[in-house]
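re: ur msg from earlier - yeah i can do the adenosine-3',5'-cyclic-monophosphate complex, just paste it... oh wait u already did. ok heres what im feeding in:
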Amino acid sequence: MKVRVLGCSGGIGGAGDTTALLLDEDVLIDAGTGVARLELDSLSRIDHVFLTHTHMDHIACLPMLVDARQGETPLVVHGLPQSLEVLRRHIFNWQIWPDFTTLPDPQHPKLAFAPLAVDEAIALSGERSITPLPAVHSVPAVGYLLENPAGSLAFSGDTYLNPDFWPRINRQTKLQALILETAFADTHQPLAQASRHLCPRLLAAELACYTGKAPVFLTHLKPDQKAEIAAAVQDLLSPDHGLQRVRALTGTHRFQW
Ligand SMILES: Nc1ncnc2c1ncn2[C@@H]1O[C@@H]2COP(=O)(O)O[C@H]2[C@H]1O
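and the outut:
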């Protein structure tokens, strides 16, 4: 499996694009502004989008992807039932964007919705599977475990303290990487808590629950707080803390296993 980071910033500005991970050529995890980096033929090869949640920084490019994509089969958007209802009601409602579940005609739509549930794995071609993981955010949300027989990669999605996440991660014997959000700096902890995100201090509490050794990559850093978050994470890496191999994800990173 290959995962190419198209966007991993907590906002726009500077070189950052918002969350989008391309799994092989046919699956997107979230559809933030990073999707706009892809050429038309790459967009047309995407068959599935797995959404963590419906916040704009994770769906910004979804409407235009549906319209741009060429192909006979619909783009299948997977999400929690509550997330799909939000998309129907507030995005694909003919006012913000056309309802592509009925276009060009209801028998041959460009868009289909597929509800998912935490812990229910979705099998994909090539012995790949994607399993929704619990997340704790200000709207219904999930993370994802991407898996093939050779290993797995876990992505927290946007989340606050998430005790149900760790037993599932600690069971992974072939985890290649752990992508965790750390949106805010410690000086913004009240906002992190209000908006259900982590800051380095809360990240340290989360990582204390991790018993494995996979490298940890931080995502969703707010652009104006990147330096402060990075400095705090360096402090977390002091020898007495015992944490190692924690670094910020970059918008060009690729994983392969
Ligand atoms: N009280 C608040 N609750 C939630 N989000 C807020 C609040 N105040 C400001 N925000 C910002 O709104 C953003 C929505 O997307 P994020 O969850 O990435 O991050 C959130 C914060 O940057």
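cool cool. The longest strand covers residues 128-134. ping me if u need the other ligands too
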